[in-house]
Amino acid sequence: MPFVTPSTQRGPYDVIIVGSGAGGGQAAYTLCMEGVRVLMLEAGRPYTPARETPMFQTPDMAPLGGSETLDKDKGFYDATVDGGWDVPGEPYVSVPDKWGGHFTWWRARMLGGRTNHWGRISLRNGPYDFKPRSRDGLGFDWPITYDDVAPYYDKVELLIGVYGGDTSLENTPAGPGGTLLPPPAPIVSDHLLMKRAPRLGIPVLPGRRAVLTRAQDDRTIPARLHPGKSRAQTILAQAMRKRSPCLWATPCGRGCGVAANYQSTTVHLPPALATGNLDIITHAMVYEVTVGKNGRADGVRFVDATTGRHEHATGRAVVLGASACESARILLNSKSGQFPNGLANSSGLVGRYVLDTVGSSVSAQIPLLESLPPLNEDAADGLQVYVPWWLYKEQLAHKLPFPRGYHIEYGGGRQMPATGTFAGLEWLTGGSYGKKFKEDARRYYGSFVYFDGRGAMVPNDNCYVDIDPKVKDRFGIPVLRFHWQWGDYEQRQAVHMQETFGALAEAMGGRMQTPIVRDPVKAVSPGGYMIHEVGGTMMGADARSSVTNRWSQTWDVPNLFVADGGVFPYNADKNPTLTIMALSWRMSDHMLERMRRREL
Amino acid sequence: MTDRRTTIKLIMAAAAGVPALRARANYNDNLEPGAAANGPLRAFEPTKRGYGPDPDLVRAYEKGAFWPLTMNAQQRRLAAALCDLIIPADEHSPSASAVGVVDFIDEWISAPYPKQQQHREAVLKGFTWLDGESRHRCARPFAELHEGEQRAICDRICDSRRAAADLRGPAQFFALYRNLTAAGFYTTQAGRKDLQYIGNVPLTHFDGPPVELLRKLGLA
């Protein structure tokens, strides 16, 4: 029985993993497939996508037409369980920035964590993204290079299934060939962007998302990922055969009941469980890593949310994959006489240099796309194409007022009508109602496109988390306090995004209801909004200037590792999840190697 | 997504320069702006009357499944008349009220969430104004007016950007009500059909648009 309780756990375990999302899920997969006995602790409830995913439900089946509420911040059908911008009973504190803005923190309390609802956008960091300081003198270099991580990008893409196109564009790498699935066909609005953006010198590439555009090759991939390990190959092949290719319908954010996209609960955990080496305790809210007299981690303490009891789980090594900020919280709360400032914090850098993604958006209405004939444009649920950052040379020559780039996530099409689809059309219709309004709805339906800029953030001293001195959550655990301040670079970058969107909309013959935003403070969305927070346990070249080393291993406690985005010393414009998985796999391989050498 | 009260609260908190507890405890009560920031810190309390953070997503819900509908018979008559003035039957699809939009709007304005509670206030106030205007002009409630009489009233408030200064409130109500009517109508099967939405069906492959269409649009 893989799902166990505090009283039925079957120790001793080799490794305790805290968290079941991208980082924890990948670590469990890699370790269990190699015979390591793992106990995974998840703060939320069990979650079964095949049974719980609203695959073809229409908005009229949901309360309020499925629209957002404070109970379901991204709409009724969003996969997130017991989470969102607020988690019941688990507050956090946010210190306002100098403009009154606040960091907001998205969490999920469910098996698989935020991988159940994420956008599935899977971009590799490029060579520059690992050595940003060497390139422009700002922030921190990673202690590793693209070449160190590239083999793990290959493996993750093969395992989870990522569609995309190979490119030779600067700092926009793809694998050696054969790791990506074919990209989906572009829809009409995609063709318009592909036609017009190049006139502005802006490239358009096939998108990259963790969606199966065709069945995975279960005959060759298992052998490539687990050479010489016949049992692991068999288990993976069976798991791959249980996944369906994309049905070209129903939004990925609901999760996928046929496992056509990646979520930890459908891709990482089933094969890990099938090995028999993985036990999972859900409702386990971890708050402390315990350390033995020898200075090594010997387990974690957690509250069983079903009983309220405090429990202890032990293992030979501990992996934190609770999410960047939650893992920092656990370390900061792991105080003892030996570690008065929290565990693994001799550098004083736990919680420091938290990063998010710079976000800025514009919507435009495109007359050319009005009154199109009936078309099924559900496609891959977005990002059939995207715009990678294209001004590296200008940036290097200091021709731009910000040092790092952004990419543009683009969408449009005749999507399933939702409650907001025809709201606020007065600027186009002149306030029509009656039969004219119905004609206008037909005319404008599907004629809107959306540009979402996603930009790199330079680390700064004002963005960090610490423990609030007063506030505790419902378990009595001290909560995080967020400090946040976008830098000038990010704000200027957001204005550049707005100007680019305006130029693209114009090139597509579009119009906008309101002018683009040129106020730098208003152009950038609040910290945390992109749900890309990383850093806080950054990796680096030495113990003085970082929390973890090149293997995601804490400098201070040799058998304590961080598998989530906490280890990022820099957040490039590329969405972090793919890199989290690649680094977690790399970390797990290193753990295996040390276990073989009996160092762990 | 952020309701007005929360926004005000955050602005007040920022102005006061004190950390705000990022938890929206004040769903249902009348917490004054700023109270959470300056008063005792409170943990988030899930809504007592909403559907909570972990509803069953797979089953289909009748309107009113989570909270009672609250419109009275007179309000429902007016709601239906205004729905159908905005979305009448035509050769493509039935009218809004014929596909349950009155229930949709009733569920919406009866919901316990802050945004919907604000909409409730605006809609009921708008109803009162509309019936008052009807009685003043024609000595009958709005629902009993002929279409021409209804249009004579609504033509003055149908575009909030052009409405006279003294009609700005009613115009905002009309814009909101049109949004709600469209939200209810176009999320039904009839609404999807009217728009010729043909997705949300499983496909074995996806080929993109026909090349003839792309040629016609100059995109081939």
Question: Can you describe this structure in just a few lines?
Answer:
Chain A is an alpha/beta fold.
Structural write-up:
With 600 residues, chain A is α/β, with parallel strands linked by helices. Chain A is built from 17 helices and 15 strands. Chain A has a single domain, classed as 3-Layer(bba) Sandwich (FAD/NAD(P)-binding domain). In chain A, 25% of the residues lie in helices and 15% in strands. The relative contact order of chain A is 0.19. The mean pLDDT of chain A is 97. Chain B is mainly alpha-helical and 220 residues long. Chain B has two domains: 4-38; 73-194, no CATH class. Chain B is globular, with a radius of gyration of 22 Å. The chains are: A alpha/beta (600), B mainly alpha (220). At the A-B interface, β3, α6, α14 and β13 of A face α1, β1, α4, α5 and α7 of B.
Structural class from helices and strands of chain A?
A: alpha/beta
Number of strands of chain B: 1
Largest sheet of chain B: none
Q: Averaging pLDDT over every residue of chain A, what do you get?
A: 97
Largest sheet of chain A: 7 strands, mixed
Topology order of chain B in helix (H) and strand (E) letters:
HEHHHHHHHH
Number of helices of chain B: 9
Approximately how much helix is present in the residues of chain A? 10-25%
Short descriptors:
heterodimer, A: 600 residues, FAD/NAD(P)-binding domain, 17 helices, 25% helix, 15% strand, globular, B: mainly alpha, 2 domains, 9 helices, 47% helix, disordered N terminus
Which SSEs are present, and which pair or pack?
The complex is a heterodimer of chains A (about 600) and B (about 220).
Chain A (H helix, E strand, L loop, with lengths): L12 E6 L3 H12 L4 E4 L7 H4 L40 E3 L31 H4 L1 H5 L9 H15 L27 H9 L8 E2 L14 H5 L4 H12 L22 H4 L1 H6 L3 E4 L2 E8 L5 E8 L5 E11 L3 H10 L24 E8 L19 E3 L4 H5 L9 E7 L13 H4 L5 H10 L3 E8 L8 E9 L5 E6 L4 H20 L12 H4 L36 E3 L14 H20 L4
Parallel strand pairs in A: 1-2, 1-8, 2-5, 3-14, 8-15
Antiparallel strand pairs in A: 4-10, 6-7, 7-8, 9-12, 10-11, 11-12, 13-14
Helix pairs in contact in A: 1-17, 5-17
Chain B lengths: L3 H13 L3 E2 L13 H4 L34 H14 L14 H9 L4 H25 L8 H8 L13 H19 L2 H6 L16 H6 L4
Helix pairs in contact in B: 3-4, 4-7, 5-7
